[in-house]
Every structure is written in C-alpha cells, then in structure tokens.
Design a protein that fits this description.
heterodimer, A: two-stranded antiparallel sheet, 13 helices, about 70% helix, globular, disordered N terminus, B: alpha/beta, Rossmann fold, six-stranded parallel β-sheet, six-stranded mixed β-sheet
Chain lengths: ~325, ~375
Amino acid sequence: MTGATLSTPHLNTEPPRSRGRRELPEGAGNAALVFGAWLLLVLATTITRPDFISHQTLLSVTFTMSVTGVLALAQALVAISGGILDLSIPTALILPSWLAVTLAALGWSSWLVVLITVTTGAAWGALNASIIVWGKLNPIIVTLGTNFAGLAVMLLVFQSAQTPLHSGLSHFGRGYFLGLPNIFWPMLLLLALVGFLMRQTRYGRRAVAVGGSPTAAKSRGISLRKTRFAIFGSAGALAGAAAVLFTGSNANFTPNDGTNYLLSVIAAVILAGISLSGGRGHLWMILPSVGFLSTVPVSLVFFGLNDNWQTVMQGAILIIAVAIDGLRQKRLAR
Amino acid sequence: MKPTLRPRRFMRTALTGAIAGLTLLAAAACSSGSTVSSSNGKQNQKFKVCMATGGAGLDWMKGQGDVARVLAKRRGWDYVELSNNNDAATANKNADVFIQDKCKAVIEFNGQPSVNPVLAKKFAAAKIPVITYDIGQKGWYFLGIDNKKAGEAGGAALGRIAKQKWNCNVDLVVSSEAAAAGVVNQQRTGGMRQGVKSVCPNIPASKYVSFEGNGLLSSAQPAARALLAAHTSAKRILVVGINDSGVVGALQAAEQLNRASQVIGWGQDGSLISGSNVNPHLAGSVFYFLEGYPVYAFSKILDKIAAGSPPAVGDDTHNNPTVLLPPCPVTRGQAAKIPAMPQRIKKLLAAPNGTTEDSLFCPNHS
C-alpha cells in the first residue's frame, strides 16, 4: 500500500527526505492507535465468539468498507487541502448513482455508464468549487447548501431508484475476486493511486501546501483557485466512483440514502488522523480507519448488543477522534 | 482602485444570493414539501381538506397525495398538502400550519408516532377532525391495514413455503425491524413471526432473531450482513420484515455472503414484488395498496364530515377502527400480474366513484 505522508512543512513541493537521524515517521502514533484499537476489537470479539474469525465476517466487513472507503478518501482530499469538510457527500453519491441506474436501465454500455457516473461526480465537485472559489465562501456552508439543494432536486425527480438486476453494474456489484467482493478492490486501488499521486505529483503536494497555509502557498506562486478546483473536482470524481460501487451493491435506493454515510465518512477521516484544519494526514490511514469502523457493527452483533449501540459507538468514536485531533493541533501549535 | 474589483464583488454577491436562495428553496422543499391548493376567491365557503404525507423517498407516499388531490378536486374542495418529511418536528410544524390555515379536516400519515399525542392535543383544541393512516392515535379516525393480520397472513404464507421446502426445519427466522414505526412495527413483524409459528410451531424461540433496518434497503443490508455473519451455521433461513425494502436488504446481504440459496423472504407493502427487478429470493409480499387509501378516507369519512354528519370516531387499530382495510398477500407469480403503481392509480381514478384498489387488483383476499 502506498502511503502518502503529507504535511505542510514541505512547501518546496518536493517529497520529504530523511533528516539523517532515526525518528518515527509522522503519524506513526496515530497509526499505532488505530491499528491497536482494531486489533483489540478483533481479539475481544474472537475471545467472546471464536467463530468471529471467518470468511463471512471478512466479507461483511469488506462490503461495508468499500463505498465508505472511497467516500472517506474524497472527504480526506477536501480536508487535507484546507476545505475542512464536504457536507455534500450524500448528494455527490446519490446523484451520480441515480444517473448510473437510469442509463443502465436504458441499456447503455457499462463502461460508458461508469465514465458518465464518475464525470457527473466530478462536475458536482466542480460546482462546489466554483461557488467556493468565486464566491470566496466557507466550504462547509456552501456544501451544506448544495447538499440541501441537490437533495431537493433529486426528490423532485425520483422517489426511489432500482439497479437493473441484469445490468453490468449489478453483476459487478455481486461478484468476487480473490475471495473478496469485487467492489472492495477499486477502493484499495483508488486509495493506493490517490495516495501515490498526492505524494508524487506537484498538484498533490500543492494541495497539501494550500491546506497547511494558504498564505504561504500563495506567496510561493501556488494558485489557490486552481488547486481548490482540482481538489473538489477530484473529490467529486471519487464520489462518482463510490456511486458505481454503491449502485452495484444496492439494488434499490432513495435520495435520502446518502445521508447514512456522512457520519461514518467524517468519523473515518478524523480517526485516520487527517487534520480538518488541512495540511496534515496520511491517506493510507483511511484503510485501517474505515476497517475499524466497519468492524464495530459486526462485533456488536457477535457481542449480542442492540443495534442502537452501533450509533452510540460511532458517535463516541467521532468525539474521541475529534478530541485527539484537537490535542494534536494544540501540540503542533506549541 | 482596480476596475476589476466591482464585477468580482458583484459576482460574489450574486453567488452568495444564489446560494442563499437555493438553500432556502431546498430547505422549504425538504422540510414541508409542496403545498397545493385549489383555492379561488370563494375559498372561505369551501370545505378544505389538508393532508400531511409521510415524506419523500417512497413512491406510495407521493401516490397518496396525488390520489387525494384528484378526489378533492372532483368534489370542488380546497386541498392543502404538506410533507412530514419522516420527521417528528416537521409533523408538529405542519399541524400548526393546518390549524392556522383553518382546515376543516386533516389526514395524517406520520411515520414518527411519538409526536402524535402532541398533534392530537392541538387538533382537538382547534376542533379539527383527523384521519390517521395506519398509525392509531386516540381521538383520531383510524383508517388502515390491520397490521397484525397483514403480518400473520405474510408469515403464514412464508411458513407454508418453509414446510413444503424444508419440512419446517428452519435454522433461523430473521426479522428486519424499524423501531421508529412503533406499534406498526411490533404488529407487523410480530404478526409475521406469529404467522410462521402458526404453520411451523416447532421452531425454537432462540431461532427468531431480529435486526434494525429502519425499513430501508441501504440500512438493512449492512445490518443483515453482520447478523448473518454471526450465524454461519444457519443454512435454512426465513426473512420477514416491516416492509419489502427491509426484507430485500436482508436477502441481498445473504447474496453478498454467498448464501443466497439459504434464504427465502416474504415482504410487506408490495413495493418491491412487482416489476422486472424482483429479488429472486423474495417469495411474496402483502399488498395494502397504500396509494389508494384516500378513496376510503373520502368516501367513508370526509364526505360525511363535509355533509355535517361526521361518523363516530373509531380510534382503536384492532378492536374499533373506523375503516379497516383487507391485506392482500400475493405470491411472486401473482404479483407479476398486478400493474405498477402509476398504472394502478390511473385505473383507480378512472373507475366509478368509491371503487377500491383491493377490488380491482387483489387476486386473493386474506
């Protein structure tokens, strides 16, 4: 897995180099925390119910990870570049999903459907970016507004949508590769690819620089507008990719279904140690973060706990993660 | 001063205004739905019926409003429609609007029944009679399905399949719940379990398990996946639930875990049993023809209220309902012959006054 170590001190847009002395890589503490929590959860559940370690559990967790993972990656891009949060993720997921199933029902080729779905997501991101950049408005307020507007428009257009049972999307969503769901692999691939691009390309490093300190980035000749456009457009395209995975694995959905993902996506990003104030974070950390969050509900069932505990746990994890992020910010400020 | 600043500022102001406008528009659309009125200059003399639909996301919720609007128009009544948006606070706000709007009668479909006692108090103080669909409330005309009977009919049908296929040797009876629906959930899913038991009485109580699916496929699917993963030894599984979406979510979860051949489901509400996209493991469902409820509301209650002789309030969902509708359990094969909802609405509205969907489309009454 490619890990993108991203932090604002590298404003020279060059990859970070060794400083000649042995030190823990940045974010190692957070990685140990998340992996530790995940391992502890798996161990505790296995001790209680040895049948927890099974292919069924693996399938259950990986199915849940797939869509959430790609959406968390989109959210992480926005956060790392200083966009704080994209609250229009629900619409960014459902709007392309609706288009995808509509085109699939009309018999369009699956590849074309995928292309249009991803492009629609990118267009949605570009719409957000244009309002934020040209209006110089707070991204949270803008994306909250566009999410409301998008949801309302979708409700005018459709009440519920169905993925055609015999479409390529549906076949892909129900298939397996190397014993894991088909939809899990694009998530892994995108995580590796985006992580690599963020670290190895000029655009990626610029995005991190803009997130860390827009003023410093601007003084070094980085265009804030272009960077924001690129980031929101890419995040939208990723949401479009998540829509492909979502429609493949959900035969029926409503305009409101995207909201189910928002809390877990934000929790995953914060838990991954990606700073909401921008400029810091490791994209690869999304994998254990989403993995941990996707394992929690399965573990709760094995523990025999009520479903409502899932929401309680998710909320608690979010609060703890935000608190840790706050502590981290304070430590950095010193 | 740079001359380029002004257009930029204008652009910014315009964008801000556009966003604010869009947000307000969207918030209005999302929170209260559309308001439709056939009022003209003489609106004070007209009978005004106000309807709070359940919300967005399910076709039949919109269908209930569409049918009511046409029936009100045919009678020359004013018609106001708001959406409860599946939200208790919105339902409460809508009640205030109806009272201020001087509605003569209100139809409520409120899927968040916890707030109904509050609404009932307000409407009672304003002396506005209320018809409630499917969810009973003291002092309101109950019009709806006998949820328990609907559950039992579906459960018994699924039990018969289990008996025929597995001789009732069932490893697991999974129930897809929606706790927020309150008593409707208890009656419907409880009725389904009861129905299964009536045919297969020897299934041990420990084999009955449930999960929270919120009545939505997207919520039911991951929850059911987790539940099925925790029961790997179960090879013969029956799935019941509050509605088709919740049941199909569990069936899809089984497919995703490579256990599709181990499950058979029977749904409720008929929303996913017809059309070309029916899940192959959904054996049947129970139709209520929800979109046709306004036919009963108008002919059996509202016409009488408008004429000045309101019927006695029957508010007990089981023992004393005002109008109790017959559930219509159908197998997958039978459902294929029932038209899709838009066609059903068209045929219903074209039929003579008072004709019900049950009489038009149900192949076998329970």
